Every structure is written in structure tokens, then in C-alpha cells.
Amino acid sequence: CPDNPSSLVGPLKVDFHRSRTWSNIRKEVGAPLQDGGRYMPRDCLSQHKVAIIIPYRNRHEHLKHLLFYLHPMLVRQQLDYGIYVINQDGEGVFNRAKLMNVGFAEAAKEYDYECFIFSDVDLVPMDDRNLYRCFEGPRHLSVAIDKFNFKLPYSSYFGGVSALTKEQFLTINGFPNTYWGWGGEDDDIYQRIIFHGMSIFRPDHITGKYKMIQHQRDKHNEVNPKNSEKLTQTHLSMDKDGIKNLNYTVKEIAKDRLYTFINVDIHAPV
Ligand code: UD2
Ligand code: MN
Q1: pTM for the full predicted model
Q2: What was the ipTM of the complex prediction?
Q3: Catalytic residues, which ones?
Q4: Measuring CA to CA, which of 19, 59, 152, 257 is 20 to 30 A from 212?
Q5: Whose CA is closest to 36, among 67, 60, 77?
Q6: Best of 83, 91, 96, 149 to mutate for ligand 1, by most ligand atoms within 8 A of CB?
Q7: What domain of life (predicted)?
């Protein structure tokens, strides 16, 4: 496929006011997909094998909105891609970064993905020129979120949506497994990247616009004050705490038309 897909349209209309049904979404965007939320272009060979990893628990409405907008955009970007929803089993403390590690490991078992996009379930891109592919360095995609007045909240901000090649991900030993509850894990990932001598790529602030679905803080994902304290230790912990020592138990893998659902026990403290 060409380097610059010709079917991109630029700015997208994104609206969360209408509630959606799964069957409607499957009808509207499911046609070109194979089970598991898999797609590859038919008329050309895609240059990008991309796994989209979504850390998840109990956000059904958000997932519907995201998939409704994301699938058509990824098809237009002519990616060879699959969408993986990594569901934290049980009611224990949530752990976004560990779920993303699990998503990396499980997706890599299924297919020869070269690029991994890690995305919050509530962030919908507002411009399809924001390419969901990988670059020479780790890329932060959600640079202009409405919640932050379409600006970076701070210059080392790495939350939301990011893209790393398999090699970049393994170079930083993946993400930390030990950030339970809300906060800090995105800053830890940023530091891992910098400490390993890489720099961050970003789209411009027009292409990188996102709409965040408004929500309250979830139960069992309360701010954890220990997380910000851990950030001073990243350089010491990063090669011990990551994809190399990841452990978890897969409880179920289910293939929906729109996504692969992986329910996982990540041994959360209760
Ligand atoms: C910010 C960051 C996010 C992460 C988080 C701190 C933005 C836009 N995002 O998100 O990347 O660094 O702070 O941990 O700044 N989730 C569930 N179910 C739950 C809890 C979380 O599915 O019960 C997932 C979901 O994909 C969600 C993500 O975890 O989008 C982050 O949690 P959040 O949306 O509650 O946190 P938020 O918006 O402050
Ligand atoms: Mn959020």
C-alpha cells in the first residue's frame, strides 16, 4: 500500500450524545472486518502490522463509541491491524500498565505484529491523519485532548494513546507492572523511554486532536499516592519490573466481530 493513504478525510465529526447498540455498530462498521476485530487491505499489501491494545474494565459505553469511530479510520489508513480489549478480571485494584503488558504479550502470540498502539478506551481521535502506526522512536499520539484545552498538560506528558514498535517496547522492558490504582504509570513509561536514550515523536496539535468521553473516577482505581513516590526510582526498577517478569493468568479469550476480548487475572491486591 502507498505510504500516504489516499482515502483519508482529515477532521472527523465525533459525537458521544447518541447511545449506540452493539448490533448497530457491527452493521455500520463491521463489514470489512474478520472476527477478533482484524482487518487487512485486500487491494494492496499493508506495510503496517499493528495491534491496538485497550486496557479495560466495565466501560461498555466508551468501548462502543471508540470502536465505532476507530475501525473506519484504521481501515482508511490501510493498516493490517487487530483490536485487543484487555479486561481486568475481578474487582481488585486496577492496573493499566500491567494490562497493556498483557496485551502486548497476547497479541504478539497471535500474529507477527510489529507495532503496538496503547489506547485509553475513552479517547477518540478527531482527525484520521493521526496515523496509528509506528515511527523511528516511541510516539505519543494524544497530544491535543479537549479535556486539556487541546494542549499538552505538561511537556513530558505521555498519557492516553501511544505507539511503540515491538523493538522499542522490548528495549524499555515494556511497562511497569507495579503501578496499582490511578496515576504515575504514564510518567514511568516516559522516563523509561528517555533513560534508554530514545526521544518522543508527536503529531502536530491539529492532527493530534482527541475527544475524551467524560467520566468519573472508577471504583477500584483510586489515586495511589505510592505511585508518584515510585517515580523517583524508575531508573533503578525499570530493568527488573516489566515485560521480562510479567505474570498473569488468562481466563478467557473471545472473538467478537469488532474486537478480541481477553479476560485476565493480573493478581491484583484486593
Ligand atoms: C489519565 C490518562 C491515562 C492514564 C491515567 C492514570 C489521559 C487522557 N489519560 O486518564 O492514560 O495515565 O490518567 O492511570 O490523561 N480503565 C477501565 N476501567 C476502569 C479504570 C480504568 O477501563 O475501571 C481504563 C480505560 O481504558 C481508561 C484508562 O484505564 O481510559 C485510564 O483510566 P481513566 O480514564 O479513569 O483515567 P484518566 O482519564 O484520568
Ligand atoms: Mn479517562
Answers
A1: 0.98
A2: 0.99
A3: 120, 122, 182, 185-186, 212, 215, 217
A4: 257
A5: 67
A6: 96
A7: Eukaryota
